[in-house]
Amino acid sequence: MALGPDDPHPQPFQMKVRTLDITQNIRPVTRQDIPDLKQIAGATGLFPSDMLGDMIAGYLDGTRPDIWFTGLQDGQPAAFGYCEPERMTDGTWNLLAIGVLPQFQGQGIGAAMIAHLEATLRERDARILLVETLGTPDYAQTRAFYAKNGFTEEARIRAFYGPDLDKVVFWKHL
Questions:
Q1: Residue 160, C-beta contacts closer than 8 angstroms, at least 6 positions apart
Q2: Contact yes or no for 166/156 (Cβ under 8 A)
Q3: pTM of the predicted protein model
Q4: Which end of the chain is more exposed for a tag (fewer CB within 10 A), N or C?
């Protein structure tokens, strides 16, 4: 039905919401992405951006089996994730970082990134995916995100990071 000034039966105003199909725009990180990843790390507070070089070095030179992936928006990295295998385990991986630029949060990019990672890990015969975060009120939204994406709170280690800074570990079977 056409909407317009000549419509004899106007419908209530409806806003068309742009949905992001980022699943087609998630790919492995390249060396050229590093400046954008530093910006994402800084904007999200994941970790100090000057740590990125050391963290990603083994992935870039092929000496580590880590997974680094980025979600693109308009051709530019808008999100990234970093996952590594847990040492001395059979098929357990740890998602150490996932971040989305603040202006793109809440649009499904994080969930698409998690789904992409899970598919990648299943291809590698992974069994379990872990992720940890803080137990403070400031991280309630982060904990809710993991729960919404199928993770179960598995452990809480009180005062792990410091006084009143609990470590909360989430678990998901792949």
A1: 166, 167
A2: yes
A3: 0.84
A4: N
CA 129 to CA 107: how far, in whole Å? 23
Widest CA span of the chain, in angstroms? 70
Tokens standing for residue 98? 């996932």
Q: With contact defined as beta carbons under 8 Å apart, do 70 and 37 qualify?
A: yes
Specify the CATH class of 22-173 in words: alpha beta
Q: Give the type of residue at 149.
A: N
Note the pLDDT tens digit of each residue in 73-114.
999 999 999 999 999 999 999 999 999 999 999 999 999 999
What does the alpha-carbon distance between residue 77 and residue 39 come to, in Å, rounded to a whole number?
10
What Cα–Cα distance (Å) separates residue 90 from each residue in 65, 85, 93, 114, 127? 14, 9, 9, 21, 8
Exposure letters 35-54 (e unless 16+ CB within 10 A, then b): ebbbebbeebebeebeebee
Distance CA 154, CA 60 (A): 32
Return the domain boundaries, the chain: 22-173
Provide the strand spans (E) within the chain: 26-28, 67-73, 76-85, 92-100, 128-134, 152-162, 165-173
- Cα separation, 54 vs 165, whole angstroms: 26
